[in-house]
Amino acid sequence: MRKIGFDNEKYIELQSGKIRERIDKFGGKLYLEFGGKLFDDYHASRVLPGFKPDSKLKMLLALREQAEIIIAICACDIEKNKVRGDLGITYDLDVLRLIDAFRVAGLYVGSVVLTQYASQPAAKAFRQRLKELGVKTYRHYPIEGYPNNTEKIVSQEGYGRNEYIQTSRSLVVVTAPGPGSGKMAVCLSQLYHENLRGVKAGYAKFETFPIWNLPLKHPVNIAYEAATVDLNDVNMIDPFHLETYGETVVNYNRDIEIFPVLNAIFKQIYGTSPYSSPTDMGVNMAGNCIVDDEVCRSASNQEIIRRYYQTLCAGRKGLLGEDAEDISYKAELLMRTANLSPEDRPVVAAAKEKADRTGAPAAAMELADGRIVTGKTSSLLGASSALLLNALKALAGIDDDVHLISPTIIEPIQKLKIEHLGNRNPRLHTDEVLIALSICAATDERAARAMEALAELAGCEVHSSVILSQVDSDVLKKLGTNLTCEPVYQTKKLYHK
C-alpha cells in the first residue's frame, strides 16, 4: 500500500469553507478564477499522495447550490487549433468535453465566453456551433494597451465593449481548457459591469500551485515549476506580501508582475483595492492538508525527474519549438536544484541495463512494494507489452515462465496485422495484449487472476529505453502508471506514430 501524505477529506472541507468565507467578504457575489485543472488533476495527485484527481470537483459539489461555471476560451487558440498536450484534443473540443463533464457531475454551466474575439472565422464557426447546441456564448474583445493602460481598460472603450455575462449564482467559477485563455480578464470585466449595475461583487484566485505556505525550494513547489517549464513560470517570494505583513510566502512570476496593474484596475473600478498582495487574492488551502511532509517530498522528487524526461522527449519530438534547448536546460537545472539525477529513479537504470543486455528496447516497472519488473523486445511482443504481462504475473503470484497468452493465439493476431491491416511491425502493442489476455481469461484461471491485478498498476513507475508509440504510451497512462522514456527513437525513421 502506498504511503499517504495528504488529507483529502480535510482539504475538501477547508477549501469549500475558505471559498464561502471569501464570498461573504464581498457581500455575496464572487468571481473565482480557477487556475489549473478543475478535475483530472493528476499532477496534484502525484506530488501530494492522497490528493484525489477529482478533489477540486468534489469541493465545488459541496458548493453546487451556490456555484455556476463560465468557461473561457481565447478566440486566437480556436483559430490556431491549439491542442491540449495531455488529452491530444483541440481547445474548442475540450470546451464541449468540459461542459459535458460538469453537467454529468451535477454542476451548472452558465455560459462560454470567447476572449480576444476579433471575428476570427474559426471562432465565429465555434460560436455558431455552441448556439446550435443551446449553450449561451458571449464575446470579449481585445483592448488596445492591455494590461498597462488602466484608464482605457476601465472605460466604455475597454471593458465596456465586452458583452456582459448574465449570471445567477453567488459563486461564479471561471475556468478554461488551458493557460492564457483570459480567465482573469473575464473576471475583471464582470466586476466592471457589475459595478455599473450597482451589484457588489469581488474577485479571488484559486491556484493549487505553487503552494504559498510551503518554502520556495520545497520539492512540491519545484515540481510545479518543472511542470510549467515551457510556460516560463518561475516561483518567487511575494514581495508585496513580505512588505505588507513581514511574512515570506511563495507565488509565481506572472501573478507578481501583473499585481500592480491589477491593483490599479481595482482602484479604477471601486476607488480602493481589497488586496495588498497577489497571495492575498488566493484561497488555496492545500498546504494546510499535508499530513506527512516527507512522503510529499519524496513523491515530488520523482515528479521532478519525470518532468525532466518528459521535457527531453517533447524536445526530441519537436514540440518545444525554437526554445527547445533552453527549456530542456531549465528542466535539468530544476532537477539539479533539487539535488536529483536520473539515477534517483530506480526504473531508469533497470530499463537501460535490460536494453544493454538484450541489444533491443526494454522497459522496467517499479511495483508498489518496491519490486522491479522488466520487459524485453521479442519476436512476439514489444518491450512495453512484455513488461505489462510480467508485471501482472508478479502481482498475481504467477510463475515468470508461465505464458499468460499462448504463442498460438499471438501468431494469428500478428498475421492479421501484417497481411490484412497493413502494419509492418508484427509485435503486439499493449492494447492488443490486453484484449488477447481478456479473451484468455474466459477459460484460463491464471489469465483471469492477471486481469484482476490490473488495478494494482495504478501509481507504478515505468521507464522505457526508447520513446514509445502513441498507443503504448496512452494505454500505460490509462492504467495509471507514471511513464517516462529515454529521448531516443527505436528507429531512424523521420515519421513516428
Describe the structure.
The chain folds into two domains: 8-289, dip2346 domain like (dip2346 fold like, Roll); 345-485, Domain of unknown function (DUF1846), C-terminal subdomain (Cytidine Deaminase, domain 2), CATH 3.40.140.40. The chain has 20 helices and twelve strands. The chain has helices at residues 8-25, 42-47, 55-61, 75-79, 91-105, 121-132, 150-153, 183-196, 219-227, 239-245, 253-270, 278-281, 293-316, 324-337, 346-358, 383-396, 407-419, 430-440, 445-452, 470-478; strands at 30-34, 67-74, 108-115, 137-139, 171-175, 202-206, 235-237, 250-252, 362-366, 372-376, 461-464, 482-485. Helix 9 packs parallel to helix 13, helix 9 (219-227) packs antiparallel against helix 14 (324-337) and helix 18 packs across helix 19. The longest helix is centred in the middle third of the chain and has 24 residues, at 293-316.
Secondary-structure blueprint of this entry?
Blueprint: H1 8-25, E1 30-34, H2 42-47, H3 55-61, E2 67-74, H4 75-79, H5 91-105, E3 108-115, H6 121-132, E4 137-139, H7 150-153, E5 171-175, H8 183-196, E6 202-206, H9 219-227, E7 235-237, H10 239-245, E8 250-252, H11 253-270, H12 278-281, H13 293-316, H14 324-337, H15 346-358, E9 362-366, E10 372-376, H16 383-396, H17 407-419, H18 430-440, H19 445-452, E11 461-464, H20 470-478, E12 482-485
Parallel strand pairs: 1-5, 1-6, 2-3, 2-5, 3-4, 11-12
Antiparallel strand pairs: 7-8, 9-10, 9-11
Helix pairs in contact: 1-3, 8-11, 9-13, 9-14, 13-14, 16-19, 18-19
